[in-house]
Design a protein that fits this description.
This protein is of the alpha/beta class and 296 residues long. Helix content is 32%, strand content 11%. It has a six-stranded mixed sheet with strand order 3-2-1-4-6-5, with helices on both faces.
Length: 296
Amino acid sequence: MSKLFQAFVMVDWSAASKPATGADSIWIGLIKRNVRFQPTYEAHNPSTRAEAEALISSLLTDFEKRGERALFGFDFPLGFPRGTAAALKFSGDPWSAMLDFLAGEVKDKPTNANNRFQVAAKMNRLMTGGAFPFWGAPQRDAQTMLMVKRPREHDAGDLPEFRLAEAAAKGPSSVWKLYYQGSVGGQALTGLPMIRRLMKAHPGVQLWPFQTGWRPLTAKDVEETSAVFAEIYPSMFGAKPAANEIKDAAQVRAAAEHFAALDEKLQLGKLFGPAKEDERREIVEREEGWILGVPG
């Protein structure tokens, strides 16, 4: 047996509408090998999503040139709750159709100005004809199909509030929550178009679990892959900030160190799938995805 990856890149994303650094902004933590093939850690805090995407793309190019495989972790949902694609009347694989849709709809300027609230309102109209299931926006961005506050609870006939992975993790917010503390919906709407662009620019990237399958991985499974993109939940790792270290920075560092340590022990591969055959497999692999490290 051998290790799966030579580099680990963890991304704490942000849907901020203005350039920002420090707390509550984008942090990218990476472990990679130096010229002596020793693992070293770097932290980056780009002020805009455009800068972050350019950095991630340059890292992918660098790893490809060096013949090294990398694990990239993103702290936003890579899929939507089961039934979302059908409600939007998408055809084909739900996860791929969603990436294509958002890549075409979301406008994200180099200044971080973006139309995520307008896109969510459009999706609400297409899915339910009302201001549901997406919710949460500043008053200035509220509209007929998107309310400032949550309009109601999810009923039995609605799209699920949570994905299977979120229910298993017992902590992450729902993708339908766009605003306020702990929200991840805005991060997903602005992050998934980036994922689609990077996958097109770097064909060696595999998106887990949609392209790899929801199953334990071996080095042989990824030998033709330059990078694996996965969803992470950094709060899982109980990061303790060092002196003068911002919480977000500590979380991406802890995540990178966690996965690197598991891979060093040849124990990382089993996290990419359940221990045994699982009846949820089709939902996870076709639409919802999973969170790396959450037990199956």
